[in-house]
Structure formats: C-alpha cells, structure tokens
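pasting for the record
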Amino acid sequence: MNHISHLKSATVSRRAILGLDVSCFSYADALAFANQMASLPLGQTVISFLNANNANIMYADAEYRDVLARQMILPDGVGVDIAATVVYGDKFPANLNGTDFVPALLTYMDRPKRIGLIGGQAEVAEKAAANFKRHAPWHEFIVVSDGYFNDAQSAEVVARVEALKLDILLVGLGSPKQEKWVDTYIRPEHARLVFCVGALFDFVGKAVPRAPRLLRRVRLEWMFRLLIEPKRLWRRYVLGNPLFLARTLRQAFVVRVLGKPYVHGENLVI
C-alpha cells in the first residue's frame, strides 16, 4: 500500500544507510515535524526507525526494504551513527530512537490526541497505556489489541482501529513484522501519524528494564540489553553488529573510494 507521506515534500536532508534514505532531523525539528503531521486533517505519515539490526534484516529482505522505502525513517542508535560517519564523514544530527522519541513527542504535543496501541502482551500493553497516561495525562490512550493475532484476525484489528477514530497509532510487533503489517493494513483514514515502535511497550510497561542513565548517555544500552538477555540477543549484537559494520565499510568503499553511488544489489555485496 502506498501511504501518503508528507516527508517526500518536506525540506529535510537524508543520508542513505545501505541504500535506504534516513532523515537528518535535529531533535527539535523531528518533534515539530511529527506534531504537525499528527494535526493535519488529511494524509498519513508512517515513521519507522533504522538501527543496525533491522538494517541487516532489510539487507537480505527485498520486501522489507521496499516497505521501509515507503515510510519515513529516523536514525536509531550508535550503529547508524557509525555508518553515517564512515560513509559521509559525520553522524546524524540526533539519535531519534523510538524508546525515547515517542514519549518525548507525547510531552511535546500540547493538544489532546487519541492514541491507539497495538502489540505486546495484553497486560504489558495495558500497563504501557497507563504509564503513558501518567506521563502525558491530556492524551487518551487506547489498547486496540495485543500483538498475538494472526493474519486472519488482522481485519478485525483494523476494524477496531477504524472505529476508534485515532490521531496516532503505535504498532509494536517487532521488525520486520510491524512495518510490513502497517504497510499492508493501515490506511490514511486510520490515523494521521503511525509509529512502528518495536519493544517500546515492554519498556514503558516495565516488562523489560531500561539501561542505567549513564549507559544510555554513552550509547551503550545495547550492551546492557545483551547482558540481561544473552540467549535472545547474542546473535543480534555479537554477530549482527560486525556484519552491519562490514556492510557499511563496503558502502563507504563504493561511495568514497570508487566515487560511485551505492545501489543495493548492484554493488558487491556480503
């Protein structure tokens, strides 16, 4: 599905990470832009976040790459900052990871919004909605569905979304499922602004602890997550991070040494 995205006409520079355009907003400009998109009477902006892990998924999944190309992409984490520095000589203006950016946006938006949540375990989603409400009490938060529904049940979930007349929809089904699901099922009339938020509900609902503030400040939250969930995350970080770096170095070689545009699938790949 082709979403109506106001990003395409917005004046914002972009940097391609492994061939996918990522927006170069400052934090303040990203907040202002998202707030404006949520307030428009027509159209829809779908926002996803690119980190080293889903960049690796995108690299091997052509369908996922095409879906992300139809969405607005914000930079998430130190990995894409390293990639931008290697390829372009400078990091992104701001780390716009969804775990911090979405709560910050809720505070930034002073006009009340109806905000729907899809994803996670039912009790975790309910706790996340309650904690969002404490964080920004002028908004209304509604759990539309947990994340445990199949394709056959998607029409029922979408019907609930449509009936709720939402301003903003937060979808936390994990990558690449959440981005593909939104691309397939969510239409402009369902919400002006849609976020694919990954594990945000787990963090806000206190099902998974955040890293200490110091580790977050020095961009090492991924290491904390690896320490508390090594069996689930070791492939993502221990194998995935070096693979992402190697692919980034290949892009830098094509762009900076050979002086050619990097086109996924047309340059040497690893």
